[in-house]
Amino acid sequence: MNTLRETKEAIIRDPENWVIHLMDFVDDFRRYKNVEAISEPFELTHERWDALLASTASQLCSELSLPIPPWLWDVPACNDPWFVSGFENLKAIALVESPLHFRRRKIFVLENFLSRV
């Protein structure tokens, strides 16, 4: 299982496949429920990736009734709103559906963003 820090490193190395790296982390975290995977802070170097990863980890903790590590609360929001889908016609839906852990960091996703088949 990759840690959140390792996931960020993978995304930085391979940004075109960020969804794969993120969802691999999501799948593993849900499977193992190991808070050690998110216990170590990563360096804040990329506004969007930092906020997305912190939001994802916080959302997963809430979903699984696990404690959110305090350092995640300190990861700042994006300066400008980020609509992850990139589709103009989905912005209004994302504003409404985006979970709180994402909205507080100005990241807007559809409610099924972390859903897996």
Percentage of residues assigned to helices: 40-55%
Order of secondary-structure elements = HHHHEHHE
The count of helical stretches stands at 6
Structural class: mainly alpha
Mean pLDDT across residues: 96
Radius of gyration: 13 Å
Describe the model.
It is built from six helices and two strands; from the N terminus they run ααααβααβ. The protein is mainly α. It has one domain. It has a two-stranded parallel ribbon.
Brief rundown of the structure:
It is built from six helices and two strands, in the order ααααβααβ. With 117 residues, the protein is mainly alpha-helical.
Layout of SSEs?
Layout: H1 4-13, H2 18-32, H3 47-64, H4 70-73, E1 82-83, H5 91-97, H6 100-103, E2 107-108
Parallel strand pairs: 1-2
Helix pairs in contact: 1-2, 1-3, 2-3
